[in-house]
Structure formats: structure tokens, C-alpha cells
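To make this tangible, we now present a fold written out as C-alpha cells:
***
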Amino acid sequence: MTAAMAETKKILLAHGGGGQLADELIRKTILARLGEKRPEGLEDSAKINLSSKSICFTTDSYVVKPLFFNGGDIGKLAVCGTLNDLAVAGAIPVALSLSFIIETGLEIDILEKIIDSIAKTARQNNVHIVTGDTKTVDAGQADKIFINTAGIGIRLKTADLGFDKIKPGDKIILSGSIGDHGITILSERQDIKFQTTLKSDCAAVSGLTSKILTGTTGVRFMRDPTRGGLAATLNEICRQTGLDIEIKQSQIPVKPAVQAAADMLGFDVLEIANEGKFVAVVSPACAEKVLRICKKHPLGKKAKIIGQITGASDTPLVEMETIIGGRRIVQMPYGRELPRIC
């Protein structure tokens, strides 16, 4: 093997230059592994035929460290994160864009593993990667790889969601245990060992949210509690609606290992990021039905009604009844507790 051949086992600045190396990277590494059917001539934008004029559109960027973790990797995270943003908006995801910013020196086999994960996750969720872009930067400027995805989804006719739909008396449902993703990332980044193996909850929830939205009426609002965790999501609801929230700590599902790790490291599990959960605000009449639908789905077996929306207030607050019977105000997280989570 010549020195030049060995060098191309890693990403070079030339891979982003639009020439032969860039073309080979796109065709032989990226497109070949995504498995999407495309015409021989690649165009700068995708043409998509949709069955509805009512669509949802979102975009997000992913900078997680480490790139691979128990339960996922940056590729799976990029797909699931964007699909989840569409899902909680009441849409069925149909298409994604995929853009890479790759640091010079990244091993090609690492990129291939990431692309394989992207392709697998997209196939599992019946979405297509329809367009994308690749850029390269000098060593030290991107921490190996950053990914941007944008997603388009068809809004379900039964979905009528928004802060303005929330009313006093509505119930708050959490689809499963919290803190799994953030604590897993922290433990692997810092090489902290626990007796129980921690695993990220990284998953696409659109299959479950679509069942809820087509099988019930009375769903007012949905949100995936990613950065800032459950605390940030609930406080945002308060601020946008002017309504108080009451939750019960005893009803919030947390895995014992995650709670123990958070306590030991000094983190509030309510503020830890999640990547496969959602919060739903629903009418009292449909709360039990939503809960039953959740519990029949693999991603909702631990779902709980964790609280309710109360009355209007000049200074709306999230208040939690603690396990020992006290009351605690759950504040909006001030900054970032865990950097580079998603």
C-alpha cells in the first residue's frame, strides 16, 4: 500500500473540495451505504411528492461526544432526534436531509459505521434520506464530526397541538424513564464505572405518537424533553401558557441506577437530557386511554401520569410534591449541566 493510499483511509481537506476525492466520498462511502436509489446525476435539491399540503419541517444539529455510546451513536441520534421533533409536532416523518462537517483526520471506517447507523435507523422508521452536503475542516475545528439533519413530515389530520390548546385540569403524561441518555453520555465520556450498565434511551417515538394521535382525541401538546430535560419542558409550558403545573415525584419514572448516578455526581435528574421520551399534555377525559396506548408500545411501557395543569398565575411555577410529602419548585435550568449531549 502506498503512502497516498494509506492517507485516504482518513478524511482529507480535499474530500470537501468538490473534486474527484469529494465525488468518491459521496458516491462510494455515503450514498452506497445509505442505500437510497438516485439518478446517476446528483442534483442540488430533492424533489418530493407529498400527499398533503399540511406539513411540518424541522432542523437540528448534533455534536455529541463520545461519537459512539451504549444505546446509540451520533448517526442514530441525528435521525431519531429530528424524527422526534416531527413526531411531537403531530407529523408522520417522510424525508430527511443529511449534512456532515468532518474534521481532517477522521478515519473512514468510523464515518462508515456512522453512515451505516444512519441508514439502519432511517429504514427502521420508514424515512428516506433525500439530500445532503459534506464539508471538511482542519483538524481541531469540529471534534471529529458534526451532523445536521432537517426533516419533513406530513401532519396528521387529527393533530391539533399547541400551547394555546392547554387548559387547567389537563393531565401531564411522561412516556418513560428520564435521565438515561445524559447520564450514559457523562459516564462514558468521563470513563465512570457503575455496577449497573447504563444505556441511552435514544429512539424514534413517531410510531407511538402517531398511534396516540390517531387513536384518541384531546391531546393538547407534545414535546420531547431533550436538552434541559423534563424541568425545561415543563417550565416552558408554564411560561407560554401562564398556567401553573403540579407534578408528583413518586410518579416520575427513573431507573434506580440513573438516579443513583445523578445523586452521586450532583445532578438533578429532572434536568438531564433524554432522547427517546416525550411529554404529552392531554384532556382529563382521554388521559387513561393515552396511557393504555403507551403501555402497549415498547417505548411507552413505563409511561405515567405525572401531574396536571392547574390555574392561571401571575408568576406561573412548576411545583413538585416530593416523595416525603414536601413541596419543591422545579426551576428552569440556568445553563448547560452536561456539554455536548446531543
About this structure: The first strand starts at residue 55 and ends at 62. The domain at 163-330 is CATH 3.90.650.10 (Phosphoribosyl-aminoimidazole Synthetase; Chain A, domain 2). Residues 1-6 have pLDDT under 50 and may be disordered. Residues 207 and 308 are 25 Å apart (CA to CA).
